[in-house]
Design brief:
binds coenzyme A, alpha+beta, about 180 residues
Length: about 180
C-alpha cells in the first residue's frame, strides 16, 4: 500500500528548500488560511520555533524518504490534555491517495498513546471538502462552527476526536 511508505520525522536544515518552494503556492495559502514564510531567514526562525516549543510537536511528512508536507500538534494544553492539529501535504501530486489519512493516524497514535492527550481538535474551512473528508476518515467529527466577525468570511468548522473514540475506532477496524 502507498500509505505504508509514509513516515513522520523531525525537521532538518535541508527541509528549508522544500518549505521555500511550498511557500510560493497560493492555493495552499487559501486552503489553510495561513502561509509559510517566504524569506529563508524568517523560515529558519519559524522552523526552529516549531522544534523548540513545549506546546508543539512538529513533523515533516515523508513519502518514500521524500518530504511532501508537514503535520503538527500545537497549542498543547498539558493539563487538560487537549491539542490542536494542523496538516499540509504541500506536494499536490500526492493528494487523494490516502496519505493525509495515514499521516493523521500516525500523529493521533502519538497524541493519545505516547503523549497521553485526551482530545485533538482542528479548524477547517467548510469549503475544503478534501480536508473535511480526510479528517472524517481519520475519525474526526464536526463539533460546531466558529462565529466570524464578517459574515462574508469563509465558514470555519471545528472538528475533534477524543482518545476514547479513537480507541473505539481502532478496535472496530482491528488495528
Ligand atoms: C487536506 C489534506 C491533508 C488531505 O490529504 P490527502 O492525502 O489528499 O487525503 P486522503 O487521500 O487521505 O483523503 C482525501 C479524501 O477526500 C476526497 N475528496 C477529494 N476531493 C473531494 C471533494 N471535492 N469533495 C469531497 N471529497 C473529496 C478523496 O476522494 C478522498 O476520499 P477517499 O479516500 O474516500 O476517496 C491534503 O490534501 C492537503 O494538505 N491539502 C492542502 C492543505 C490543506 O487543505 N490542509 C488542511 C487545512 S485545514
Amino acid at each position: 500500500m502507498l500509505s505504508d511508505l509514509i513516515r513522520l520525522r523531525k525537521p532538518q536544515k535541508a527541509d528549508l528548500e522544500f518549505f521555500i518552494s511550498w511557500s510560493q503556492d497560493v492555493e495552499l495559502r487559501s486552503l489553510m488560511g495561513w502561509e509559510y514564510p517566504k524569506d529563508k531567514t524568517e523560515l529558519n526562525r519559524w522552523l526552529f520555533e516549531r522544534t523548540q516549543n513545549r506546546e508543539r510537536r512538529f513533523f515533516i511528512i515523508e513519502y518514500a524518504s521524500q518530504p511532501i508536507g508537514d503535520i503538527e500538534l500545537c497549542n498543547i494544553a498539558w493539563r487538560s490534555g487537549q491539542a490542536e492539529l494542523k496538516i499540509c501535504i504541500a506536494d499536490k501530486s500526492y493528494w487523494d491517495q490516502g496519505l493525509g489519512t495515514r499521516s493523521l493516524k500516525i500523529i493521533l497514535k502519538e497524541a493519545f498513546t505516547t503523549l497521553g492527550l485526551n482530545e485533538v481538535y482542528l479548524r477547517v474551512y467548510a469549503f475544503n471538502k478534501r480536508a473535511v473528508c480526510c479528517y472524517q476518515k481519520a475519525g474526526f467529527t464536526l463539533k460546531g462552527f466558529l462565529k466570524r466577525k464578517d459574515p462574508n468570511w469563509n465558514e470555519i468548522w471545528l472538528m475533534s476526536l477524543t482518545k476514547v473514540q479513537f480507541e473505539k475506532n481502532q478496535s472496530q477496524i482491528g488495528a
